[in-house]
């Protein structure tokens, strides 16, 4: 497996079944690579399990903004995104910076084409009213649910839809539970379609 000059972030990864199975994971995004290097900007690595071929996927140019400014509020994640209506799946790139979430979906890996499907401030999403929280972690689960953990131990879900940025109506996140990790980095691991409310008789959240 070829991963380039940057360190790899295996904390978030995506898996697609196409072509015998392909794993996608993000590089780190710290500023330590010289500008004349092809690995100066952060990137995504894809690895095909069947033929053992690695490829580099450039992140969208708008996603580069502010990345190398040593802003510790900047975080990235690569996840599997499913469209329940079309029955298709791809990978998405989630960027969090200064409490603003931006999401792109990869539409063509060969030509490196991305489409932005969401950009919203945390306050507009309903994650807080007055006191700004620290985002402890986020992930895309159950196909198209952006799950967000805050440092006040709250968990929220936000449905990712392709028409989000075309609508003038601001969509709100829905509180789904609590955690006890505080400000620590919260990681999500889904072993099945298991995202659900707490309590007896609770069923998993459906694809929306």
Automatic annotation (TrEMBL):
Instruction: Output this protein's name.
Output: F-box protein
Per the UniProt record, the source organism is Heracleum sosnowskyi
Q: What is the lineage of its organism?
A: Eukaryota, Viridiplantae, Streptophyta, Embryophyta, Tracheophyta
